[in-house]
Give the backbone structure.
Amino acid sequence: MENKFLKISYRLAKIPDECSLSDKTLLIAAEHATQSSHSPYSKFRVGAALLLEDDSIIEGSNQENASFPVGFCAERTALSAKVAIAPNKKIKTIAIRVKSALKVVNQPAAPCGICRQVLLEAEEAQNQNIKVVMQGESGPILIFESIKDLVPFYFGADDF
Ligand code: THU
């Protein structure tokens, strides 16, 4: 038996100015998206912003429900909006920001497993990488060039 190792490459920017203008702009849009979060239960606002191939931006935020498992994550809310508004446009980048009423979040919050799977399949379907840029309220920014970097050994449409 062999020991195998996985390498995942990503970039860390200490401040937004280390990022490209388009990533910085998208991080601001994702922060803006946190304002429409409906999160009275977790008090945790998540904002996602998608940069499309025509440089338009679509925002989404987490929408919670009194029946807790019914809530929508920000990433999938943004993706659903994109499918409704611009079904044929490719996504270049998704930025994700978070903000909590309970503490200062100075670390990025990575997308949950379900959102990763959905984003991964969106990436596969459009046949073009989706870059992921994430940041807390403040603090470091993590940049992944593909959703696949966040989902090793993924299950995709070609697997069945
Ligand atoms: N949440 C997201 O919006 N995206 C994720 O990928 C992780 C979690 C939301 C769901 C819930 O409204 C709140 O964050 C706390 O879990």
